[in-house]
Amino acid sequence: MRRGEAPRVSGVRLTYSELRVVGCEAVTPRMRRVTLAGDGLAGFTPVAPDQQVKLFFARDGGVPEVPDPPAGLDDVAGWYQRYLAMPDERRPWMRTYSIRRHRSAAREVDVDFVLHGDGEHDGPASRWAAAAGPGDAVGLYGPSVSHLRTPGRHDWKLFAGDETALPAIGAWLESLGPDERAVVVAEVAGPEEEQRLDSPASVTVLWRHRGSAPAGRSDVLADAVRELDFPDGEPFAWVAGEASAVRDVRRHLVGERGVDRRAVAFAGYWRVDRTHDDASTAEELADHAEASAG
Questions:
Q1: How far is CA 213 from CA 117, 119, 220, 225, in A?
Q2: Among the three residues 115, 144, 173, which one is the final residue of a domain in this structure?
Q3: In angstroms, how far is the first alpha carbon of the chain from the final one?
Q4: Parallel, antiparallel or unpaired: strands 156-161 and 181-188
Q5: How confident is the model at residue 65 (pLDDT cuts 50, 70, 90)?
Q6: How many domains does the chain have?
Q7: pLDDT digits (tens, 9 = 90+) for 170-201
Q8: Are residues 162 and 140 part of one domain?
Q9: Which residues pair with 270 in a beta bridge?
Q10: Is a pLDDT exceeding 90 seen at residue 9?
Q11: Residue 96: which residues within 8 A CB-CB, separation 6 or more?
Q12: Are 122 and 30 a contacting pair, CB within 8 Å?
């Protein structure tokens, strides 16, 4: 759910697959789950619960055209430049999404799309997902790790994010063991956007509603984390969503709660005042450098 950027190297072989839609279902009024399938997923190697992929959407609604996949990890940057060099009318839109669920035997993946429907945040991926039907084509490149930081020793996990983070949070929760503990703080528009989150672990889910406030223009998430009574022990925190809200939560955890910055994984999935294709700001580049250094 991040802006178009060069595929991130994850230490595994990234693969490109042309996939087709085989099913769609409404998770909530504003979130639609699209099931993608194809033989190319035979080589799909999961790398993390919150793994991400690049999805490619043809501008004419047909089959996306992309340059030949990188010859190796050293060719990823070159591949991205070849992608950018494609004529505008042929170059497909590229967006980053989390894999909600992977079924290796069926060669299927589920991807959950937020349907903004407000005109301000609608993008090509959201519009594609809203109209997607069986047989529609999409390209997939990946997977790669999105969180950049792997949990060290800790006693419990904190997950905080808006609706764009829920697919990754859902996958994370399903990966936990029965002896683990987690707290989820989730910002959504209203009670109708709450969804079932299953886990073998002991999990507390706190839903917070921003009501009439537009997405990305509310302090609901940061305020909820500030008001949270932390369980005993050392946490590992995973924070994702709108970039400025993620930054506020991270600064609170490190600066006010004293959480080791190396124990906070964070990702700005989208920006309230910029499109996915706008260049990164200096602050965002600094965030990325800090995350990568961890």
A1: 15, 15, 10, 18
A2: 144
A3: 22
A4: parallel
A5: very high
A6: 2
A7: 999 999 999 999 999 999 999 999 999 999 99
A8: no
A9: 242
A10: no
A11: 1, 2, 3, 4, 5, 52, 53, 54, 55, 146, 269
A12: no
Q: CB of 94 within 8 A of CB of 123?
A: no
For residue range 242-291, what is the model confidence (pLDDT) as tens digits? 999 999 999 999 999 999 999 999 999 998 875 666 556 666 556 566 65
User: For position 167, which CATH number holds?
Assistant: 3.40.50.80
The Cα 215–Cα 266 span in angstroms is 19
Average pLDDT over residues 43-56: 93
**Is the domain of 114 the same as that of 208?**
no
Q: How far is CA 265 from CA 148, 214, 261, in A?
A: 7, 25, 8
Q: Which domain holds residue 205?
A: 156-293
Indicate whether 162 belongs to any domain: yes
Q: Is residue 2 part of a domain?
A: no
Q: Which residues pair with 128 in a beta bridge?
A: none
Flag whether 65 is in a domain: yes
The DSSP H or E segment spanning 25 is: strand 15-28
Token pair recorded at residue 172: 């994370």
Q: How many whole angstroms separate alpha carbon 259 and alpha carbon 234?
A: 8
Strand order in the sheet with 156-161: 202-209, 181-188, 156-161, 235-242, 264-270
Domain for residue 8, yes or no? no
What order do you get walking across the sheet with 52-57 strand by strand? 93-98, 52-57, 137-144, 15-28, 31-37, 108-114, 101-103
